[in-house]
Amino acid sequence: MTGSPVATDATDAHPPEVVVITGMSGAGRTQVAKVLEDLDFFVIDNLPPTLLDKVVELAFGPGSSVRRMALVADIRGRAFFGTLVDAVRQLRETTGNVQVVFLEADDDTLVSRFEESRRRHPAAEGNSGVLEGIRNERELMTEIRGLADLIIDTSDLNVHELRDRVVDALGRPSEATLHINVVSFGFKHGAPRDADLVMDVRFLPNPHWVDELRPYNGRDEPVRDYVLGQPATGPFLDAFRSLLDVVVPGYVDEGKRHLTIAIGCTGGKHRSVAISEAVATYLAETSGLPVAVDHRDLGAE
Prior knowledge:
With 301 residues, this protein is of the alpha/beta class. The chain has two domains: 17-175, 3-Layer(aba) Sandwich (Rossmann fold), CATH 3.40.50.300; 178-295, no CATH class. Helices cover 38% and strands 17% of the residues. It has nine helices and nine strands. It has helices spanning 29-38, 52-59, 84-94, 107-117, 130-146, 159-170, 221-228, 233-253, 271-286, and strands at residues 17-23, 42-45, 68-72, 98-104, 150-153, 179-186, 197-200, 258-265, 291-295. The strands form two sheets. It has a five-stranded parallel sheet with strand order 2-3-1-4-5, with helices on both faces. Strand 2, helix 2 and strand 3 (68-72) form a beta-alpha-beta unit. Helix 1 crosses helix 6 and helix 4 packs across helix 5 (130-146). The chain starts with 16 loop residues before the first strand and ends in a 6-residue tail after the last strand.
């Protein structure tokens, strides 16, 4: 299949990228695909190789916002798999920025992984076992392995180590960083479903019941001073900051890319807003990580 060259903007700091993920069954292709999704790649799994060129052409066509694509192609394609080498070569001619990542592992590791999953090896023939399927697959993979830009042996890698290898090889510096989002909300509107940590600050006195403070919100100085000046606020913030001093580095060590901290009060206007601002400021000053603040229910009270 012949495709047109992908149009690129010379002023674009990040031209279109294509990564073809292939390799041995059980070596971690699915895990790598998940990592690339986290790196904002548009991922297509088990795509017939004959369609690679056309799909890339459409994905990077005029008006598309896709800039990074990962295509998983492997032995599951059966009869189509034999065309993968030619499809990759064609793609490199038409697209240019194409990398092939080949995942492999030793026989003992692959046998162990298949025994744990209790799945039949896709290259096993007839009543042959897993080991025979692995040997068949290695032979079929020889040529595409020779085209690989990056070969990762996952025999001794856990999921976190594999993620680090992929991020180091294919990520951009900012993408390996944990991004923290501090969200204020009102419980009467429901807690955020995607929050990793939820903190309830309804134990603090409510400025809503102070007539002169009611029109303001937690970003306004009168309300901020009132909330932060309460006797319980200082000890609470000290304790919460100490908790975050443990949690945030833990998220970084685990390779997480997003941490959402939700702080709620009754309506999401006063206490949660003031505390969220204070927490976000602390994190921005101490963690060295990008921190955003979202006052979800401000204006909806």
